[in-house]
Amino acid sequence: MSAPVLGLILAGGLARRMGGGDKPLLRLGGRTLLARVAERLETQCGAGLALSANGDPARFGAFPGPVLPDTLPDRPGPLAGILAGLEHAASRGVGAIVSVSGDAPFLPADLVARLVAVRPEAGIALAASGERRHYTIALWPAALRHDLRLYLEGGERRVGGFIARHPAAAASWPVAPLDPFLNINTPEDLAAAEAVLAMSAPRSV
């Protein structure tokens, strides 16, 4: 049996295309995106969940895990959140994290298992759908935290650039009938996700 991993939900974006604010707190089908992401991820992560976010953690309510602010200044992007997650995992003796976007409400139920299965030794496993790799939906060994801190402290920000420094493999999912990594970036995306929920809801006889 694989060692348990920590699930890290990235919620540090500024949601400019949605009018600002915390995108994971937008509601889809009466529930926040964050609640939907946490529900899909929690059962897959034996070491529990954590949330990457800056500012007042109280706005996220009763999230089932710690809210981790960046450990570097100036909000250098998603890699800073991943670094905070890796450092938190290492402090608990957890060997790896799986990061996901806080605006991806349809994550697959086999996400963690498949990432664990394809991860190269001491490397990174990425989720993919169709021809697209999702750099922030990935499994990261906690041992990479030292190199990641050096990378960020050197002024680098690109997630793909950091991944290229290490062995990496991808697990791919089909995009039909629904891309499981659909993320909500615009009001149109939110409307499309509402339509998906409406189509999948059980109909009364």
| Largest beta-sheet details | 7 strands, mixed
Gap from first CA to last CA: 43 Å
- Number of helical segments? 6
**Uncertain residue ranges:** none
User: What proportion of the residues form beta strands (DSSP E)?
Assistant: 15-25%
Bulk shape: globular
Give the strand order, joined by hyphens, for the main sheet: 5-4-1-6-8-7-9
Structural class: alpha/beta
Mean pLDDT: 92
Radius of gyration: 16 Å
Please tally the β strands and state the result: 9
Helix-strand topology string = EEEHEEHEHEEHHEH
The helix content is: 25-40%
Describe the structure.
It is a single chain. By secondary structure, the chain is an alpha/beta fold. It contains six helices and nine strands. It has helices at residues 33-42, 78-91, 111-118, 145-153, 159-163, 187-200; strands at residues 6-10, 27-28, 31-32, 49-52, 67-68, 96-101, 124-129, 132-141, 168-173. The strands form two sheets. The protein has a seven-stranded mixed beta sheet with strand order 5-4-1-6-8-7-9, with helices on both faces. A two-stranded antiparallel ribbon has the order 2-3. A hairpin with a 2-residue loop joins strand 7 and strand 8 (132-141). The longest helix has 14 residues, at 78-91. The model has no long low-confidence stretch (mean pLDDT 92).
